[in-house]
Structures are given as C-alpha cells and as structure tokens.
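Convert to structure. Protein one:
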Amino acid sequence: MDQWVQYGLNEAQKTSIPHAMMEIAAIAYLMGKGYDPRMAHQMVESWEFDEMF
C-alpha cells in the first residue's frame, strides 16, 4: 500500500491534492473489492478525462 501513498503524493504535485486523494481512494476501494492493484489503477485512470473524473 505504501507505493500507492507515494503515487498519490507524486500525483498531487502534478494535479491537485483533491484529485490525487480521489484517485487513490478509488484505487483503494477497487483493491478492497478484490481487484489487482495494477488493474485498479488502470481502471481509475480510464475514468479520467483531461485530468478530471
């Protein structure tokens, strides 16, 4: 899970803190539902359009 915290901190520098928190929360939710972490990340990224959900 630590890698996703680091990812969120890095993402916040590129976008915004609310965006990064929403993205990491969505990834963590999907992981909690049983999705592989990388698949969860890909799914959440696919929901974005122009850096917005």
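Protein two, convert as well:
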Amino acid sequence: MTPAASRIAAAALLPPFGVYLEEGAGRPFQIACGLTLLGFLPGAGYAVWRLFRRPQPAAA
C-alpha cells in the first residue's frame, strides 16, 4: 500500500508540511525544513523519499 495521494501532493508541493503530516514535528520535519531552505528540489526529494521509505505493516 502506498501513502495517500494527498500526502504525496503535500510532500511534493510543500515538503516540510508533507513530512509534518506523516511524522509530526520531529527530527525529519527539521531536516525537511533545512533542505527546503537550501533549495526546493532537495526538500521535495527528501519529503517524498521519507513517505515511501516508511515500513508498511505486515499482512497477517
């Protein structure tokens, strides 16, 4: 199962917001903010990567 389309869109358009929706205001959010300040593409790439790298729950 993949992340919801709305979260992917949020991560691609507003990278820190997309990470915040998925994980809250922790360390990944701070990293996304910093990368977005350095440039939009590094921030967006990190946010989308962060959404897809999360382990999926095992099927029982």
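The first helix runs from residue 5 to 13. The mean pLDDT is 85.
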